[in-house]
Amino acid sequence: MIYDIIIIGGGIVGLATALKIKKARPDLNIAILEKEDQLAKHQTGNNSGVIHSGLYYKPGSLKATNCIGGYHELIQFCEEEKIPFEITGKVVVATREAQKPLLNNLYERGIQNGLAGTKYITLEELKEYEPHCAGVAALHVPQTGIVDYFQVALAYGRKIIQNGGEIFLNHKVLGIKQQEGINYIETSKKTFQSKLVINCAGLYSDKVAQMSEKDPIDVKIIPFRGEYFKLRKDREFLVKNLIYPVPDPNFPFLGVHFTRMIKGGVEAGPNAVLAFRREGYKKSQINLKELAESLAWPGFQKVAAKYWQTGFGEMYRSFSKAAFTKALQELIPEIQESDLTEGGAGVRAQACDRTGGLLDDFAIRESAHAINVLNAPSPAATSSLAIGGTVADLALKRFM
């Protein structure tokens, strides 16, 4: 059988893309290939569950437009499928005077991105939203929420099957070749044929892209592990909803923050440290070949030279609970090291170009035989249906 489209990667972006294509063109034969024994096992299943508002992203960028559009689509989907979610709002807090201009920049971006209701709040109002939080200035963003993205992804998968799509688990893609306009996709179990390949392989998206492209891919995925602590049950009262710091505008991470979870509990984190393998969820997980590839990439070497102080601080917090606690105390001074228990970790697939740029926007590259989603970190989960729609539109143009 020759499929019209095969999507590589059963995370939330790949699933949303398949769902959008099947809804638009139920006649197309579509299959998803996932190397794991379940869907959404990596970035989708290991994130903080935040429904992002679109506050941080450059107006007009793919992140901004897809996050804001995806936000509304996600909420509608959750309502239709009866997936629990909650719009909690969040505060973004400047803890030092020097951060006030950056906070103002965030406010301006929020307004430009259409986030009605985003506002400066007084320190007295901050105490009403988050009684134990401290700072010198703060914003309140009403659109932010919480959800379980693993459950969202599984619901996408059910809808795909209901609409006639196919999902193959335990099918790791080993190679892609083209012959007479058809892609031959070799997996660990069999070879598939398709007219078009859509690569949503996340942490291995650059590797999969290189399988089908003759020219070298100009970006490499650098894996960054984000580690979390959880607040002890009797200390969860310190956080009502979501508390964020003012992020470093030059570094594509939001800084350690507090997140109330939809399933209960409060997470604190994450930091952002180089993972020693692409799926390195623990410090002890090392793949020397993958680590060497990251370290040898010219772009990463430039990033490391530019941000070595920031990187050292993140690494220090990874090995020092006291240092992690100190970072959290900037937002909640009452937090003590004894309040924190070990939480989970996620790995962010961060694309880095050869010149040392950590790609700030989503990156989608087309070729004759494939569409490659090469950078889709946060807020990809929030944006998933919008990104899926964007990729679906590119794919469907080939079947008109």
What does this protein structure show overall?
With 400 residues, this protein is of the alpha+beta class. The protein folds into two domains: 2-45 and 150-218 and 362-399, 3-Layer(bba) Sandwich (FAD/NAD(P)-binding domain), CATH 3.50.50.60; 87-144 and 220-353, D-Amino Acid Oxidase, Chain A, domain 2, CATH 3.30.9. The chain contains eleven helices and 20 strands. It has helices at 12-24, 62-81, 100-112, 123-129, 149-162, 205-212, 288-296, 298-306, 308-319, 321-329, 380-396; strands at 2-8, 30-33, 50-51, 85-87, 90-94, 119-121, 137-141, 145-147, 166-168, 173-179, 182-187, 191-199, 219-231, 242-245, 257-260, 266-269, 273-274, 340-353, 363-366, 370-375. Strands 5, 6, 7, 13, 14, 15, 16, 17 and 18 form a nine-stranded mixed beta sheet that branches. A hairpin with a 3-residue loop joins β19 and β20. The model has no long low-confidence stretch (mean pLDDT 95).
Write down the CATH topology of the largest domain.
Answer: D-Amino Acid Oxidase, Chain A, domain 2
Percentage beta strand? 25-35%
Helix/strand-derived category reads alpha+beta
The CATH class of the largest domain is identified as: Alpha Beta
What's the average pLDDT? 95
* Shape annotation: globular
Report the count of strand segments.
20
Q: Low-confidence stretches at least 5 residues in length (pLDDT < 50)?
A: none
Portion of residues in helices? 25-40%
Summarize the structure.
The protein has 400 residues and is α+β, with helices and mostly antiparallel strands.
Helix and strand topology:
Blueprint: E1 2-8, H1 12-24, E2 30-33, E3 50-51, H2 62-81, E4 85-87, E5 90-94, H3 100-112, E6 119-121, H4 123-129, E7 137-141, E8 145-147, H5 149-162, E9 166-168, E10 173-179, E11 182-187, E12 191-199, H6 205-212, E13 219-231, E14 242-245, E15 257-260, E16 266-269, E17 273-274, H7 288-296, H8 298-306, H9 308-319, H10 321-329, E18 340-353, E19 363-366, E20 370-375, H11 380-396
Parallel strand pairs: 1-2, 1-12, 2-9, 5-14, 12-20
Antiparallel strand pairs: 3-8, 4-8, 5-7, 6-7, 10-11, 11-12, 13-16, 13-17, 13-18, 14-15, 15-16, 19-20
Helix pairs in contact: 1-5, 1-11, 2-11, 9-10
